[in-house]
Each structure stands twice: as C-alpha cells, then as structure tokens.
Specification:
This protein is an all-beta fold. The protein is built from one helix and 13 strands.
Length: 134
C-alpha cells in the first residue's frame, strides 16, 4: 500500500483499513471493494517523508512516519500539529504551536504523540472539534 497518504473516514470515525489509492484526478478508490469513495466523507493526509524518533503508534518505520494531522512533541517547541500549507510563498509542511506557525524542518527530536482525529484531547479539544485546524 502507498505510504505517502493515509485516509480518515469521517463516517466510521477511524482510519481506512482497506487499501485506498489517491488517483491523479484526486478521486479516492477502495482497491479491496472496487469502488470510489466519497471525498466529502474522507480526509486525505499526506506523509512528510520524515521519521520521528518515537511514536505512540509503535516502533516500526511505518509507525514513525510523520503525517499531516499528527500531533507531535518537539524538543524545542512542545506540542505541535503538522499541516501542509503555504509559508513564504512556498508549499511546505508546517506546524502550528497554539499561536504561531513554523517550518517542520526547524523542529528537533520529533515524537508522535497522537493525531487530531484520535487524540484531540492532547490539544484541549473534544472529538469532532479536530477539523477546525484543517
């Protein structure tokens, strides 16, 4: 399965377990069930390509891969949310730290402690409130 993306299903309130691909057209396709998925029911999160030192998801490389939507703890900033956005007129992975944005590349010793979908309480949010940062 393609590790450049992961897919959150809003209807089931969980990660897609079946293999899903993001087509060049932007459509989502479920390979197991041979069907298109509705884009309004799924959130596509991109991989940053970076590996964290630790992850609550486990120790394997796949578990340590940092994605958009991850809540991370960094030595020099504390808790941050990873997001893909525009900064200095360039597209880049950036992090939100409560009141400021910075480049993901500026953080040191990243540890994944949750995601905005599964652990919003880490940011003082309730389940379902996580989408406000998307």
């Amino acid at each position: 399965m393609d590790k450049r993306y992961r897919f959150w299903c809003k209807n089931k309130n969980e990660w897609e377990k079946d293999p899903v691909v993001l087509l060049p057209s932007g459509e989502l396709y479920d390979l197991k069930n041979h069907m298109a998925l509705r884009p309004d029911t799924h959130i596509v999160e991109h991989s940053t390509g970076l590996l964290s030192a630790k992850s609550y998801r486990g120790d394997g490389e796949d578990a340590r891969l940092v994605f958009e939507g991850d809540i991370i703890k960094a030595q020099n900033w504390g808790k941050c949310i990873v997001k893909y956005g525009h900064r200095y007129r360039q597209c880049a992975f950036i992090v939100y730290m409560g009141s400021a944005w910075d480049d993901l590349d500026n953080l040191k010793e990243i540890e994944i402690i949750g995601t905005i979908h599964t652990r919003p309480e880490l940011l003082g949010r309730e389940k379902g409130e996580a989408e406000c940062i998307k």
